[in-house]
C-alpha cells in the first residue's frame, strides 16, 4: 500500500523558469531513460522475484524512483509556471503551450511513454542486469541535463538525482554479486554448448582489432568466417563438425 | 557494406511443423528480446563508439545477430510451411493464417516491433551495460522456448542460439572490464555527491531485509525515512543538513 | 514523497490459480482502462491544478489507485503462481509462459501500456471530466471481470475495486459541481457563438429520432443539412447568414 | 453509407499562410484531442449502442466531426500552401518541409495518430462520459489555438469549431440525463459494497483539505490511513472489520 | 462536408454469429490492411493533390472506403451480437468479451490502429503507388477471410468488398497511366545518376538467379560486389571510377 | 548469413557538419520512408516468396538497403560529430544533444521506428506492389533532402541513394511484369463479381471530373449514388438488382 507526503524528496527551488529547458526535463519524466521507466520496471519485477531480500530491495528503490518522478515533475512545473504570462516564454516551447503547463507523460520530443521501454521477466539475474542498464541510461541523461542547466537550484537537484542512480547501480551490483552473477556471463538452467567460446570476426577491413573480448585462451577467434563457410560449406564448430 | 550468403549460420531442419510454436518463436524475431533488437542496438551503438576495438566488437556481434535473425526466421518459415494445406494446422495460429506464412516483424502477441526496445546513446559504458541486459533478456526467452520445444531440430538450433547469447555476454563483460566498469557503479564526468551511500528503506513491513546491497560500511541504512521526514521536515543527508 | 507498506489495501486470497483469467486481469494492470492509467492521470493532473483542495483530492485518489494497481498485480501473481509446474496450466496462457509469471505492463492482448491512454492538461474542468470518463471505463471492465470470475477470493477483491471506482466518480462529480460544471457544458474563457444550439441531423434514414438532446427550445434541429447546403450554398446559421 | 459534398461545413479563408501555426493545428487533425479522435470514437460507439435515439445522436455528431476534420485539414492546407516557394517559410516548420504540404495524420510533435486515444465499449453510460471528456479536451485545445491565432479567417473558423464542441457537450449531457446518469455516479448491474462512501486521505502534509468531495455525511473521511493500517493491520471498512 | 444514410453500401445478413470470426474481421476494421487505412490515406492525400481530376478520384474512393468500414463494422456487430448470452460463445473470443460487442479500432490481435500504416505525402505519383499497394494488402486479407468464412451472407459481402478493391486498383492504375508513370520507374525533378542500371548481386550461393529484373541490356549485373570491393577498394560505378 | 566490410557502399565526406540537417536525415534512418523500412520489408518478404528468382531479387536489394542504412548513419555521424564542442551547434538540434551523437532509430521528429511501416505478406504480387510504394516514398524524401542540402559531399551521396531507389523500382516493375501484374489490377484466386467496373461518384460539387479512371467503356459511372439509394433503397449493381 502506498502513502504520500507533500514534502519532496529533495527541495526544488527554481529562480528562473525556462520552458525550453523544461522540455528537456520531460525526457526524465515521460522518456525512455526517465524515472517512470525505472520505478515501474523495478516495481513490476518485485512481483515475481523469488528472493525476499532482493524483492525488498526492488521495492525500496522503486518507491524512491516514484519520489524522483515527483521531483522531476516539480522541476517541470516550476520551469513552465509562467508560460501563460506572455508570448516570448511560450515560444520557447510550443509543446507546453499546446498541452498546458506542468509535466506530461511524454518525452522531450512529445512521444508518449510506453511500457516497451521496460525490460523484465522470468529471472532475477535478467532483471538485475536490466536494472543496471536502466540506471546507466538515466545517469547518462542526467549528465547531459546537468551540462545544459544554468539555474543553480535545478543543477543541485539534478546532481542529487544523478548521484542516486549511481547509488542504485551499486545496490544492484551487490545483489547480482550475492548471486554470483556480476562477472559470470551464464545463468539459468541451460548449459551452453561447445561454441560458447567462439568469436566470429564478421565485420572486416583487413585490420583485426583484438582485445580481452576476443583473445585466447578465453576465446577462439575465427578471423574470416566467410572463407570458412565457402571452404567447408558451414561454420567451424557448428553442426556435425563442431 | 553488407554481404550475404544463402547458407544459414546454423542448419535448420524441422521435421514436424507446428504453427502455434512458430508463433512463440516470433518473440525472438520481432519481439522485445529478439534478434532484431540485439542486432540493431549494437549496430547503432557502433556509430558513436569512440573506442576502435569496442566499435569493431559491436559490429562483429551485430552482424552475427542479423544472421541469428535469419535463422529464427527460417525456423518460423519451416514451422508454418503447411498452414495452407488444411484447416487444423491453420487453427493452431490465427496470426499466421491472416498474415501469411513465414516470419513477420511482430511478437507472439502480434505487436509490431518498435525501436523503443532499444537502449543506447552517448557513452560506451552505458551502451555495454544495456547490451548485457539485452543478452540476458534474449537468453531468458530462449530457455523458455527450449523448454516448450518438442522438435529435435528446433531444440538443437535454439540451444546454439542461447549459447551464443552467453558468448556475447562474456565479450561485453570483458569489454566493460577493460574500461574498469564491470564492477564499478560510477562512470562519466560527474562525481556523485555525499548521498551516494544512503539506502532508504521506503517499503516497510516491520521486518528489515538486510543484505550486501544495504549493509554497513558500504551503505548507510535509513530504516524509516518517513519518520525522519516528519521529525526533521526533510530527509537526512539531503539539503542543508547533509 | 512516497512511502510503501507491504500490507495490501485489500487482502488477496486466491484458492484456484487460473492463468487464463490472469490474462484478463492484465487489462486492469497494463491496459487502457486499468489502474496505472487512472493513477498516473490524476497524479499528472495534480501538478498543474490551480485549486489546492482539488489538487489534494487528485493526489489522494492517485495514491489509492497505485495501491489498487498493486492489488491487481498481486491477483495476477497468485493466478500465475503455478505456471511452471506443468504444461496444462501453461497452455492456458502462452502470454505468461513466454513472459514469466506475475504482472507485466501489457493488456490482455499483450499490448504495451502507453501514455496515449491518458487525458489531461490545461484546465481543471477538462481534467475532472476526463477522470469521470476514466472511472467509467475502469468500472465497466471490473463488471466484466467480475462476471467471468469463479474464484470467490478474486470476486471479493474485484467487487471492492469496482466499488472504489464509483466512490471516486462521486468525488470527482462533487468537485465538478463545486466549480459549477457538472451540468453546465461550457467552461473556459471563450464564449460560444450563436451556433451553439444547432443540432444537425447528418445521418438520415427518413425517421428522425428526437430526444432531449435535440429538442426545442434547447436546440434548433436542422432535419436535412444536405438540402440546406444545396439550396443555400452553405449551412444555415453559419457565415453571413447565421 | 457516406456521401460527401465539396462545400466545407464552414468556409475557410486564410489571408496569411503560417506553416508554424499549421503545425499547431495538426493537434486537432491527427492529435489526441482532435477531430479524428472524436469522430471515430462516437462512430464506433454507435455500433453497440442499444438505444436507438442515442445511436442516432452518436452518428449525427460523428458525421459532423468528420466534416470538422475536413475543415481543420483545409486550414492546414492553406497555411502550408506556400512552403515550397522559399526557404524562410520552410524553416518555420521542418515537419511540413519533410512530409509535404497539407494535413497529415500526426500531431504537432509528429506523433502518429493512434486508436489508443479512443475510449469506448460495452455500456452507453461509459461511452457518453467518455464523449464529454473528449469534447472537453477538444475545447481546451481550440481555446489555446485561438489564443495563438493571428489570422482573422482562422480565428473565425476556430471559434465556430470550439462552439460546436460545447454544443456536442450539451447534447451528450442531455443524453446522460435522460438515462439518469448525469449526476449519479453508479451505473451498470453491480451494486457497490459498503466502502463506497470512504475517503482515504493518502497524501498528507498535516493540513487536511476538506471540500464537498470528502465531507460528511456523504463521505466518511479517513484522515490517516497509514496509522489505521499500523494499528489494525488493515484499513477500516475493508475485510472482516468493515 | 459529409452526409450519411443508414442504408449500408451492401446489405449485411449474418445467419450464424461467430465471435472468433468477428475477431478476424477486425483486421479489416482497425488493422493495417483495413478500410480505415485505405479511407484515411486517400482522404489525406486529396488535400495536397495538385490535379483536380485525381483529387476528385481520391475523394470518391475515400468516401466509398468509409462506407466499406461501416459494412465491416456491421459484420462484426452481427457476429458478436450474442456474446452476452452465454459462456461458450464468449470463450470463442476473449477480446470481445472484455471490450464489449461490436467493432473496435484494433486488429485481430488487439493492437490499436495507428497512422503509421498510412503512406502519403508530397507527390501524386508516390501517393498513387502507395494506393495500389494499399489495395493489394486489402485484397489479400479479403481473400484469406473469404477462405475461412462459412456463413453465406458474410461470404457474399466479402466477395463484394474484395471486388471493389480490384476496381479501385484499376482506377489508380489508370490515373498513374494518365501521368505516364504506371510503367516508368522515375518521377519527380531529380534525374538519376549513371548507376541507375546497376544490379548488385549481394546475396550469393554460387547459383545466380537471372531474370528480366537483372538482365542485359536493361541492367548491368555485378555478380560478386564483394570481390569488386576487395580488388578496387570501392564498388565499380561509384565514386571516381564510375 | 551476413558478412560486413568496413568500406561504405558509397564514400561519405562531410565538410561542414550541420546537426539540424542531421535531424532531417533521421527520416531515412529510423523514419517511415527510410532504409530500415525498405531493407526489412524486402528481407521479410523473401522468407515466404515462392519464386526462387524473385526471392533472390528481394534478398539482393534488401542487403543493399542495409548498406544504404549504414551510409545514411555515417552521414548523420559526420553531421553530428562536433555537437559536444560547443553550445551553438548543440542548439541546432536538441534531439541529438539529449540522445548523443550519431544515428538513432527515430525519425526527424523523435518518433521510434515501428514495424507498422512495413507492408508484406501472403502473396508475391501484393509484396512487389508494396515495394514499389516503399521506393516511391524513399525517393520522395531523398528529393526533399537533396533540395535542402548545402554540403556538396552530402548532396553527392544523396543523389546516389535516390538513384538506387529508382533502380530498385525498375527491378520490382520488371518482376511484376514477369508475373503479368504490372498493369493488370486483379491477382490471386478470387474472381471479382460484376460490380468491378462501377465508379461511384460519392464526393459531389455539381461538376463531375471525368478521366481515364472513370470513363466508359472501362467503367460504369454512377453520377449520384445517393439519389440511386433514395430511389431504389440500395445501390444499382449490388444485391438482387445487380
Can you tag this structure with a few keywords?
homohexamer, 242 residues, two-stranded parallel ribbon, 8 helices
What features would you describe in this structure?
The first copy, chain A, is mainly α and 242 residues long. In chain A, 52% of the residues lie in helices and 5% in strands. Chain A contains eight helices and four strands, in the order E-H-H-H-H-H-H-H-E-E-E-H. Chain A has helices at 19-30, 35-48, 52-79, 87-91, 94-99, 124-148, 152-178, 225-232, and strands at residues 2-5, 198-200, 203-204, 220-222. In chain A, helix 1 (19-30) packs antiparallel against helix 3 (52-79) and helix 3 runs antiparallel to helix 7 (152-178). The longest helix of chain A is centred in the N-terminal third of the chain and has 28 residues, at 52-79. Chains in contact: A-B, A-C, A-D, A-F, B-C, B-E, B-F, C-D, C-E, D-E, D-F, E-F. The interface between A and B is large, with 92 and 92 residues.
Terminal CA distance of chain A: 55 Å
Largest sheet of chain A: 2 strands, parallel
Gross morphology of chain A:
globular
Indicate the proportion of strand residues of chain A: under 5%
Percent of residues in helices of chain A comes to: 40-55%
- Write down how many β-strands of chain A occur, each being a DSSP E stretch of 2 or more residues: 4
Largest interface: A-B, 92 and 92 residues
> Over the alpha carbons, how many angstroms does the gyration radius of chain A reach?
23 Å
Please sum up the structure shown:
6 copies of one chain form a homohexamer. Chain A is mostly helical and about 240 residues long.
Amino acid at each position: 500500500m502506498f502513502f504520500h507526503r507533500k514534502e519532496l524528496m529533495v527541495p526544488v527551488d527554481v529562480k528562473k523558469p525556462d520552458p525550453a529547458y523544461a522540455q528537456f526535463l520531460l525526457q526524465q519524466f515521460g522518456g525512455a531513460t526517465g524515472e517512470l521507466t525505472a520505478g515501474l520496471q523495478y516495481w513490476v519485477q518485485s512481483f515475481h522475484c523469488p528472493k525476499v531480500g532482493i524483492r525488498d530491495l526492488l521495492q525500496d528503490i522503486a518507491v524512491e524512483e516514484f519520489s524522483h518522478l515527483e521531483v522531476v515533475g516539480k522541476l517541470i512545473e516550476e520551469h513552465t509556471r509562467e508560460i501563460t504570462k506572455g508570448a516570448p516564454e511560450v515560444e520557447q516551447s510550443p509543446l507546453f503551450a499546446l498541452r498546458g503547463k506542468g509535466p506530461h507523460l511524454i518525452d522531450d520530443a512529445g512521444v508518449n511513454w510506453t511500457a516497451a521501454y521496460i525490460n523484465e521477466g522470468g529471472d532475477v539475474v535478467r532483471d538485475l542486469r536490466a536494472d543496471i542498464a536502466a540506471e546507466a541510461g538515466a545517469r547518462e541523461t542526467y549528465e547531459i541535463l546537468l551540462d545544459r542547466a544554468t539555474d543553480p537550484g535545478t543543477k543541485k537537484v539534478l546532481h542529487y538525482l544523478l548521484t542516486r542512480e549511481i547509488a542504485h547501480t551499486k545496490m544492484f551490483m551487490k545483489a547480482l554479486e550475492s548471486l554470483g552473477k556480476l562477472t559470470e556471463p551464464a545463468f539459468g538452467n541451460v548449459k551452453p554448448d561447445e561454441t560458447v567460446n567462439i568469436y566470429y570476426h564478421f565485420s572486416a577491413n583487413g585490420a583485426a582489432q583484438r582485445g580481452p573480448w576476443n583473445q585466447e585462451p578465453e576465446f577462439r577467434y575465427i578471423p574470416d568466417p566467410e572463407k570458412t563457410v565457402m571452404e567447408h560449406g558451414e561454420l567451424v564448430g557448428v553442426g556435425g563438425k563442431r
